[in-house]
Amino acid sequence: MKIAPSILSANFAELGKSVQQVAAGGADYLHIDIMDGHFVPNLSFGLPIIKALRPVTDLPFDCHLMVTNPADYLQALAASQVQIIGVHAEATVHLCRLLQQIKAVGCQTEVVINPATSLTVIEEVLPLVDSVLLMTVNPGFGGQKFLPFVLKKIQRLARIKQQNNYQFEIEVDGGIDPVTIKSCATAGATIAVAGSFIFQADPQKQLALLKAAVEG
User: Fold this and answer.
1) Residue 72 catalytic?
2) DSSP 53-66
3) Which of 54, 69, 83, 181 is most exposed by smallest CB count within 10 Å?
């Protein structure tokens, strides 16, 4: 199980230091949420923050767009050396085109769905994606409790992946701690986004606890 710390829960006053701590602790990706206050009722990071953090670490940037017009951000994100761009299926009526546009700017494609959204919404585009992000909380805010019913969705997606020999990652985001990360890994997830748990204490020690939970 790979781990992507979400800086939404980091100390904003020492953001660069927090990023360096999770990198030193063995993080695999850095998860960056971009919210516009429309698709979700919250505002978060913009492009200047991404540009400022890029020289701080070599970790791949997994950028999760929670915005109403995701296509408007693609060129600028690619220019800011973001490796992965995640877009919500619920945010566009032309999902296939949007994923093609992400590929065209040279980034990896990630499709995201909310807890109540069925896998049938994205099943046709699964051959086009590098990763599928299943929200395990309702998007917009950190610190929420894990929604257990999403585990069945993870299992169904893992079966679809195996049956079709797809190679995409199965990522989960929301309410991740040592208990829930183990459940998600058992269900078939391959990447876990964790924010509040990692940044509530020493990030390196918290990362170690998550890794131990999966390996134990």
Assistant:
1) no
2) HGGG--SPEEEEEE
3) 69
